[in-house]
Amino acid sequence: MQFESTITLIQGDLRVDAKSIFDLITLAAEQGSELDLRAEGPDAEAAADAIATLFENRFETNGQVSPPDATDQPPAS
């Protein structure tokens, strides 16, 4: 989904474009980090809701979230 609004994530003094996966990676935000989300433009509310939902669902687009220990384990040998 593409939004017209400017969407920015802020961690401390670092501000990044939330539409850019590269920019999101540069945040290097660990689990539990506190981020501020700013959205400005004609569809700002929908854009902010969409980004918040992605974070809440741990970037699982189908809305189903597995516990971290279940997906982070290497396969049994």
From TrEMBL:
<keyword id="KW-0963">Cytoplasm</keyword>
<dbReference type="GO" id="GO:0009401">
    <property type="term" value="P:phosphoenolpyruvate-dependent sugar phosphotransferase system"/>
</dbReference>
<dbReference type="GO" id="GO:0005737">
    <property type="term" value="C:cytoplasm"/>
</dbReference>
<feature type="domain" description="HPr">
    <location>
        <begin position="1"/>
        <end position="62"/>
    </location>
</feature>
<keyword id="KW-0598">Phosphotransferase system</keyword>
<dbReference type="InterPro" id="IPR000032">
    <property type="entry name" value="HPr-like"/>
</dbReference>
<dbReference type="InterPro" id="IPR035895">
    <property type="entry name" value="HPr-like_sf"/>
</dbReference>
<dbReference type="InterPro" id="IPR050399">
    <property type="entry name" value="HPr"/>
</dbReference>
<dbReference type="Pfam" id="PF00381">
    <property type="entry name" value="PTS-HPr"/>
</dbReference>
<protein>
    <submittedName>
        <fullName>PTS HPr component phosphorylation site</fullName>
    </submittedName>
</protein>
<comment type="similarity">
    <text>Belongs to the HPr family.</text>
</comment>
